[in-house]
Design a protein that fits this description.
3 helices, alpha+beta, 89 residues, 4-stranded antiparallel beta sheet, single chain, globular, 25% strand, Alpha-Beta Plaits
Length: 89
Amino acid sequence: MHRGKEQLVVVFKKAVPEALSLRLMREFNVNFSEGNDNSKGRIYLHETGKKYIVTFDDADHKMAFRLKRYHFLQEIHDIYEPDWRDPKE
């Protein structure tokens, strides 16, 4: 997918409608695409809502995004570094 770039995975809670998750992602004003990495396993994949890969121009932009503390929004389940290695069970 976007391996080798500065990225984060934004995961929404299962109850959050897709339209709302898309609206919030657009409001974050970042480059994103729907997707998932391999770090959390299949159970996590089905127990959470929409997942988006956010790609940043550089590490500074990524840090600026983290400092905005979006992970405290009630709709967000998790924000983490992607893992592109082989899938976990």
